Amino acid sequence: MLLHEIVERSAENSPDAPAVIVEGRVVTFSELEQRVERLANAVASITERHERVAFLSENTLEFADAYYAIARVRRILVPLNYRLNPREWVEMLDVTQTRVIIGERALLDALEPHLPRADAGSTDNNSASAPSKQTFVLIEIGGDCAPGRIAYDDFADGSHPERESEIATDPEETAWILFTSGTTGMPKGAMLPHRALIAAAENTALGRRVAEDDVYFLAFALCHVAGYNLLIMHSRARPVVLVKRFEADEFLTLTKRHGVTNTSLAPTMVSTLLEHPEADDQALASLRQIAYGSSSVPAEILRRAMQRWGCDFAQGYGMTELGGNAVFMDGDAHRRGVTTDPHLLTAAGKPGPLAEARIVDDAMIDLPTGEVGEIVIRGAQVFSGYWNDPASTAETIIDGWLRTGDLGFIDSEGFISVVDRKKDIIVTGGENVASREVEEVLHRHPGVLEVAVIGVPDEHWGEAVCAAIVPRSGVEVTQEQIVELSREYLASYKKPRHVVLLESLPRNTSGKVMKHVLRDQVAVILASR
């Protein structure tokens, strides 16, 4: 199956069923199929086969169209993270040699001054952050568009004929280039063929069952791999309530209005919802399951949420290079976690039926049960490689196995626990400290709203443990309290030697803490002390 065939099949079987609910508008599968075809034909009329088409927007109906339309005509969708700096967008456009950009007006306004002009002098052309000189085509979503741009509604108006020869038929062709989250450094363009995206959606639909009456609330950005939840629900002809970004008040309103049964939230969204005075089990009466991913939810927060809302929790573990999640932990395992088996609250789950997982050492040799090593995953959902980066591809895919860069172990029941990112292990005085372990303990402090633990340079120890904390409003947090709490639960060498209080943690669109950015922020603060 290919991406566009998801919509075609659901439109054939359930033409009048709602597919997307966005900004008060309900779009049926029949209407979505027509929209996808119109956009696909329009794109084919101005591009060459396998050409890249960028999308720069928050969550919109047009973005949902593009998920299926661009790859339908053998072009490649390049979602751009709307939260990045315009210079970062330009760099991604340069890397992928993309000249056609569809986007919202404010974002195109921010981008356009940074685009090199085809008639510009040679100085700009030598800039490392500028794409090679070419004529860019900017297609603007919304009403009246700025001069020099094409209005989206005029562009995808159905006037372009379909060319049968342009319709995708090969599941191995690249459908999307998604840039990695860049939590540890410069993002890379992951090439996701139809095969990988379809397999990821199917693996999740099997690992986290979709009911016949499910209504899904999508709060994650479509520019992120978590947007694949759109594919999952549409593959089962179920509707998606699409919002630009997560707002607790809007979530409560739309859940009640549309009878939302399922959603996926980042840990920060769960925490925000817990703080909302009206987010009780009555307000969320229709909600049956909250899935979470991007990082683990601290055990204390999970216990509070499960007790307060009474719905199931499910975890998904995956990454951009997997097209979505490959490991799942269901509601039963979470209930065990809050009753008889607390260790399960820090587990990621078991591989879905279409994926395999192993724990290996640096030589890709399997490690015994319970021993920490790198998590590697194999399955049809593994990406095909990094765009124009064969060296990184060869380091990441070994004989079909994806090296995740995450450290973890598998217990006797087959549950995988993620200990840390390889790059987030802190080596202090010759001892390894997993930042996640320290973070779990610090979340026990009533004044800690958010926390990220990193290593900072130390002349004596090599690295020292540093806790960056966002305190809860009105509750005092001191270094003495943090150290005392750490002593109670952790080995002495694991306790934070530095505590930094921040208003917020730097996060990417999926809610992951960008620790390389955090390290730079903390370095400045510590240098001033």
From TrEMBL:
Gene Ontology process terms (BP): fatty acid metabolic process
PROSITE patterns (alphabetical): AMP_BINDING
InterPro entries the record matches: AMP-bd_C, AMP-bd_C_sf, AMP-binding_CS, AMP-dep_synth/lig_dom, ANL_N_sf
GO molecular function, one term: medium-chain fatty acid-CoA ligase activity
Domain AMP-binding enzyme C-terminal: 437-512
AMP-dependent synthetase/ligase domain sequence ranges: 8-387
UniProt keywords, alphabetically: Ligase
Annotated TM spans: none
PANTHER family xref list: ACYL-COA SYNTHETASE (PTHR43201), MEDIUM-CHAIN ACYL-COA LIGASE ACSF2, MITOCHONDRIAL (PTHR43201:SF5)
Family designation: Belongs to the ATP-dependent AMP-binding enzyme family.
UniProt protein name: Unannotated protein
Organism: freshwater metagenome
Upper classification of the organism: unclassified sequences, metagenomes, ecological metagenomes
